[in-house]
Structure formats: C-alpha cells, structure tokens
Design brief:
This protein is of the alpha/beta class and 241 residues long. It contains eight helices and twelve strands. The protein is 38% helix and 20% strand.
C-alpha cells in the first residue's frame, strides 16, 4: 500500500486530509510540526510527503531542504502546501527540490489528483526507455552511465547522486537527445506544469544538474532563446553555455 505522510499544523485540515487519503486507499501518517514531520519521514520512509510551508518548530522549506540533502530521503517526492501565492515562493520551493506546490485554499480532489500525478511520474516507468534498450540494462553514453532500474548514474565510474526530479530531467533530455526542448516543454514533461511564470526554475535545475554531472555536464547544451538539448553523441560536445 502506498504510504503518505501529511505534515500540517492545522488540526481540522490535517484530519480532513488524512480521512480522504485513507478513503482513497493510501496508508497515512501525520505530524503537526516540522521537527515531528522530519522524524516521521526519516523513520517511516513514506512514498510521498504532503508538507505545509508554515509550520511550528521548523518550516516546511527547512524540512524539504533537509530531506532532499539526505541520501536516505532525497528521492521521496514532496508536495508543498501553503497560503503563499507569490511567484518567488513557488520558485524557492521548486529550487530546493519540491515536486509540486499547491496553494491554499484548494479542493481535496485537486490535491488527490496532484498526488496521483506525482506518484506516477516518480516511478521508473515514468521515464520513457528507448525501444532497443531493455530497462534492466545500463545505458552508457561516453563518460555517463545511467541505470534506470535503480535510478543511479555514474560519471567516469564515480557515482553521482541526483534527486528524483533531477533524474527525470536528465532522462527526458537524454531520451530526446539532439532535439531542442523548450523550457515550457520541460516544465510540462518533468514538472507536469504548463505555467510560464515558473520557467526560470528550469534554468536553475539544469545548472545544478550540469554541476553534478561534472565532466559530463557539457552533454547538455543551451540553445539560446529556446531551451536545452542533449548532444546526439558523446564526441559532438561543443561546450555548455
């Protein structure tokens, strides 16, 4: 059974969410403050965390940042829930690793749909695999090795740790190599969002992904004014902008 942790300090809302999630077939754990939520996430290892932004003890941003920095919890998807509506709040949430961002007030039905989408896209099957490459095989591309089954990558035989979102971004660019991907297309495919206001978060994640890839970072090229492209072959690198 899929397990969901709800970290919410408003008792009424926490109980409503827990009830509806259980009714939808999920196993649910709850916490009413940031410190308790962090402890629950580390102990329970849920499949997804619904995380309020404004929490006593430790803010949702701090909790998310800590989860994403820990190899044991960084791949747990996080949906942030908050009354803050400003663009910068959404951007900061995505930049520290949140997988989605829901603004209060919201309908429980909307949240359930978003949970379904995030869970679906965080499975290995959510990243398309080239028809001629079995899932179980590692893909070798010059200095880069990708193992889809375990969600692990290596650059020049050194393992590199990516968040689930970074892995999806890399997989999307890799599977569409030599085809330019606009920021809007990447938002829709990787973040399941078509909102133009958050396009700069794509630039932030691509920059971070390049830095983590190190010697293989140049495989991702910038196409000025358009978006990004993964080079067609390892020997066709011209250098990333």
């Amino acid at each position: 059974m899929t397990r969901i942790l709800v970290v919410e300090d408003e008792e009424d809302l926490r109980e409503v969410l827990a009830y509806n999630l259980k009714d939808a077939g999920y196993e649910v754990f709850v916490a009413d403050n940031g410190n308790a939520g962090l402890d629950e996430a580390r102990t329970r290892k849920p499949d997804l965390v619904v995380l309020d932004l404004m929490l006593p003890g430790r803010s949702g941003l701090e909790v998310c940042r800590t989860l994403k920095a820990d190899p044991a919890t960084r791949n747990i998807p996080v949906i942030m829930v908050t009354a803050k509506r400003e663009e910068i709040d959404r951007v900061v949430g995505f930049e520290i690793g949140a997988d989605d961002y829901v603004v209060k007030p919201y309908s429980v039905r909307e949240l359930l749909l978003r949970i379904h989408v995030v869970l679906r896209r965080n499975t290995p099957a959510a990243i398309p695999v080239p028809a001629n490459v079995p899932d179980r095989d590692r893909l070798v591309f010059g200095k880069l090795t990708i193992d889809r089954a375990s969600h692990r990558i290596w650059v020049e035989d050194a393992e590199v740790t990516l968040t689930a979102l970074e892995f999806r971004l890399l997989g999307t660019l890799f599977d569409r190599r030599d085809r330019v991907q606009s920021r809007g297309a990447l938002l829709e495919e990787v973040w399941d969002s078509n909102e133009d206001l958050a396009t700069r978060t794509v630039d932030t994640h691509v920059k971070r992904l390049r830095e983590k890839l190190g010697a293989a970072g140049d495989y991702i090229e910038t196409v000025r004014g358009v978006g990004y492209r993964f080079v067609p072959t390892p020997d066709s690198v011209h250098g990333a902008d």
